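Hi all, long-time lurker, first post. I run a small reading group and we've been trying to get comfortable going from sequence to structure in the token notation. Rather than ask abstract questions, I figured I'd post a concrete chain and ask someone more experienced to write out its structure so we can walk through it together at our next meeting. Sequence below, copied exactly:
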Amino acid sequence: MTALMIAALGALMVATAFLSGLFGMAGGMILIGVLLMLMPLPTAMVLHAITQMASNGWRAFLWRAHIRWRPVFVYLIGCALALGLWSLTRYVPDKPIALLLLGATPFMARLMPKNLKPNPDSIWQGSFYGFVCMGLMLMTGVSGPLMDTFFLGGNFGRREVVATKATCQVVSHLTKLIYFGGIIDQAATLDPVLAAVAIAASMLGTTLARRILEAMSDAQFRTWANRLITTVAAYYILYGSWLLLVHGSVASF
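-- Answer (accepted) --
Happy to help. Here is the structure in token form:
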């Protein structure tokens, strides 16, 4: 990649890490959509994994006093089960399918029956969400919208939501890196300079968001987080549908 392209991606990573640092979500969802437009899917997944590991790892460190460890350990049980299943199939989705799933995930989560309110402290729910979220991670690159619904359903404050989710995401993205960087048949490689820029940009954006998150109320946090996720998800549904239509039209000729 050219120096200009690397610089542009670095700026985007700062901005998306800032969003994730502020809301604990959305930034990774925006970033993977842009990367899927620019790169082959396995390469986009590997770069996104490195970026998000840095962003979430630094965020977890900054808010380490607010991490709820029981939900983290239960969530990781489901992640391990999902990786085992996907490793048997080595499935890699097409870009339009990945984008459609990426956009549909928040709406799918909101259609769950109200009597099945997410409980992050439940062993069974935590394992189930871990399994499903890890599956979505390997299909779309992110699992944030569904994970957000899970953690927002508990009695967590905004700092606990951000810290606990970030800790889960570090392991989720590490798993994604292992899958797309080594397990699948068309495993991706990555320019070390671009990887270094991704790590530095993610840590910078996360740090910049900390003071603003401190100033927000829990009500403001939940309201703006839901609005942002809905807007981004709707865009990906439209864009994925357009790609699917175009690919289908080309294939018919």
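A couple of things your group might point at:
The chain has one domain: 3-251.
Residues 14 and 204 are 6 Å apart (CA to CA).
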